[in-house]
Amino acid sequence: MKTRMIAVATLIALTSACAQKAPTTSAPQAAAQIDDARLANAASEPQNWLAHGGTQLAQRYSGLDQITPDNIAQLKPTWSLDFDTNRGQEATPIVVDGVIYVTTAWSKVYAADAKTGKLLWQYDPKVNGPNAAKNCCDVVNRGAAVYQGKVFVGTFDGRLIALDAATGKPLWSTATFDPESMQAISGAPRVGAGLVFIGNSGGEFGGRGFVSAYKADTGELAWRFYTTPGDPAKPDGAASDKVMAEKVQATWFGKHNEYRGGGNVWNSIVFDPEFDQVYLATGNGYPWARTFRSEGKGDNLFIDSVVALDAKTGEYRWHYQETPGDIWDYDSVADMILADLPLGGAAPRKVLMHTPKNGFFYVLDRKSGELLSAEPYIAGITWAKGVDKKTGRPIENPLARFDERKMPVVVSPGEGGGHSWNPTAFSPKTGLMYLQATDHSSARHIPRPSFEYVKGLDNIGVYHFATHGPAEPEPKPDPTRPKPVPYLLAWDPVANKAAWKTPGMGSAVMATAGGLVFQGHSRNAVMGELSAYRADTGEKVWSHETPNAIAGGVVSYAVDGEQYILATTGAGGGLILAATPDVRERQPGRLVAFKLNGTAKLPSDPPPAGPVKISTESFADTTVAQGKDLYLNRCARCHGLGTHSPNIIPDLRRSNALLDASLWKSIVEDGLLQSTGMIAWKSYLPVGGAEAIRAYVAMTTKAEATPVKTP
Ligand code: CA
Fold first, then answer.
1. Is the pLDDT of residue 583 over 50?
2. Domain containing 220: what range?
3. Residue 333 Cα, ligand 1 centroid: separation in angstroms?
4. Do 397 and 262 sit in the same domain of this protein?
5. Which residues are close to ligand 1, an ion, with C-beta < 5 A?
């Protein structure tokens, strides 16, 4: 669609910025002078964390070895820096020559002194609030890219902005998609070959996936590659046109073009200078149900795939599809990690490793895309028995196709996956890959009988948060359904087996040359902990509580000969839906830095949230039932299942508006709080719908607060 090719860069004071005198602030004079040669040799300067994944291999491995299992007991906080937003945080910081560049919720950018945490500058792109409703999981941002003296950020409402790394002043800004489309940017840009690569999300909202490359110096569009097809009669005028016609269109059926397809690249992009390639990790198809998306047939390229492109032209080189014809939300967006592995040949093999939601650990030859191995990294996979090494295709279990079978089916992994987007790491020292994994996660998928695309809603062709369809009785708990088992996994990609597993739930990991693996956790969804494990055995050797949960990246750097461990804290991702009995007041996200013998005291844990509001009103049962259905379909993805929220996005049980019908209506129907992302829902609700939702939340809250009387 040519109308979507909005590529006009708005040049903001580019010439005057070039002519500026050296800034007089304490910011460095020639900030962030990173070119391709420096990026390619990033491992030779372990004091920095130059790229999203540390280096262009994206291994999240620090070559620093000052902090070891022997001295880690002395690892203590040395500073923290509060952000000015209390929403979800998922960023991985970049560290260059003693300066940290990090993004926050609402796509804001902070530069801070890496030794002291002192704020050097901050930039707020003033994201359009209502755009927050175009994503599943809050207004998160996973990080900036730093290159050629500039800091690049993708904003939630779709702009790619270049900032002067020394001052934070914008140099150029370009709309990467039509602001009216159902996309959002939560992922970090990546850089290389003079270009900035940026994708977007939208796979649950009818946003068609694509990645764009912009010239780093001017913001001019260099190329665009769509990951799912448009109208075959109207080529996009994009780098993907040729492969769409030759390979992709034939894998789709029916009116897919109207549904926009999905395949969004919302997390991992890796630039590989060795082969001048850029790899894209793509998300699920839209809608989830293939019967609606593609008449129940076809592989639907390039959903759930790794796609390799010529970095300079965006031309297709190869792809490997991990879940053909996906209906289970098996996004293949996990971090892609590049490495040289000894796989038996004369020389180490140059590989790409990938751990998507579908539960298999893939090792691909990154030059050719050849599948080298694909073994289950978790237990309990039911959608496929394995992967046929000859054809590269999964050996599917036909019973898992709830959609084509038109009946609810429990499938493992569930939509959360064996592993999702949370950062993974690889240590060249141990040869092991480290990631958070979950055995026996499962979902009960319930197909919808019909599908109607409604712009603005996350209609995905299944009853998403419901436990049963409207015509089906509430299912009884199934005692034979295994419980999920989460753990930190060290995987040997040569032997294709686990090296160790340490039980527990966690998020981002980072490995170091000091023989450690660091991982962020949540204590109750809201509060957190940073911990460290021996990289060789998985023994937990250290942990420190943090006021915020940690969903964002953990990195390491050094200043003046001292090694630091840095985490972006502030609950993000799936934590916004995590039910907890210990609901707390909301608190700002923050950077937290540790070093040996640090002496800082972190802020206290946030206090308990105020009491739930008990209504004295009464409502008809039919109104409450209608409200429950609406809540599940419109509200639950942000405000939590069963009305319970950890209060990262407000816990409605505690809202003053719960007891005030007029205030509730102003917020829910008329958009009183739309600058926070709470859009005006009037056009998406039936008459009386907002009041029915209030009835459901109020009556559920009251029932839970009322002690059950025994006769
Ligand atoms: Ca998804």
1. yes
2. 18-36+47-475+482-596
3. 9
4. yes
5. 203, 284, 329, 331
